[in-house]
Amino acid sequence: MPKHIVRLLVLLVVLAALFAAGKRFLPPHSFWAYGHYRAASVEEIASATPKIRDATSYAKVFPKEYAVWSDGIHKVVQCQVCHMAQAIGPIPTTASAARVAQAAAGIPMPYDSLKLCVECHQRIAGRPATQPQIVVSTHAQGKQCTACHNPHSPLTSPSGGPIVLASVPGGAADVGAGKAKAAAVCAACHGASGISTLGTFPNLACQKNEYLSGALTAFQSGGRNNPIMSPVAKGLSAADIRNLAAYFSGLSCRT
After folding, report:
1. Before 227, cis peptide (omega within 30)?
2. Helices (DSSP H) in the chain: which residue ranges?
3. Exposed, middle or buried, 187 (CB in 10 Å: 0-12/13-18/19+)?
4. Please, are residues 103 and 61 in contact by the beta-carbon 8 Å criterion?
5. Domain for residue 216, yes or no?
6. pLDDT tier for residue 255 given thresholds of 50, 70 and 90
């Protein structure tokens, strides 16, 4: 038999022996107990500390952000939805010095908020009408969402105050003027802060700006009729309507 054939056969035998030895001695003892995996891995995975936990685990390390989040409309959105890319978890029971320093600096956004927020809020045909939606090109005008909105409570500004619309049809909204007008013509029925103490009158705080503007305009034009609201609306100017809508839409829903 030619030498090169003998060498090839010897090599194949050696490789087969190595493979058999590896299969016999290298796999963990629990391998193939239930299938083509380590049986012990199931218990190991179950006992591992999760890197992303529920929102309450962020409360100790980021108390300010958590307080704002839990009091706003974004409380239905878990923290990890936006922040998981930052690998903030796991959150320890006792915050370390590094975590305290990180909390003092605030929670960083994982990336461009204009790209992040529109994942849920860009107007799309078929998206439920109850989901707040925007036409990005006309609403954002190239600005970051966080320039006007507090990401943890988007009905308020980054500083926690009412949102001032940068540009609206007919001119800029004046929230201060809206507050003064609300005290004069709205507070008696709807409350000084937009929360009515009477069950027969609706709350205006946190209502959408577009809804408030549309309702007041409809009462003013006669499209909607109400013995109380119609006379009030007829006494408002277009600027008053813009200002009132901006003021009430930026108030907190907290009673």
Report:
1. no
2. 3-25, 40-47, 63-70, 79-83, 97-105, 113-121, 136-139, 175-185, 187-190, 209-221, 229-234, 238-249
3. middle
4. yes
5. yes
6. low
pLDDT in tens, 123-145: 888 888 777 888 787 777 778 88
129 plus 94 within the same structural domain: no
Model pTM score: 0.44
Q: Is residue 13 part of a domain?
A: no
The first and second tokens of residue 13, run together, are: 């035998």
What total number of domains does the chain contain?
A: 3
Residue 130 sits in which domain range? 113-147
Q: Is residue 28 part of a domain?
A: no
Q: Which residues contact 184 (CB under 8 A, 6 or more apart)?
A: none
pLDDT band at residue 93, thresholds of 50, 70 and 90?
A: very low
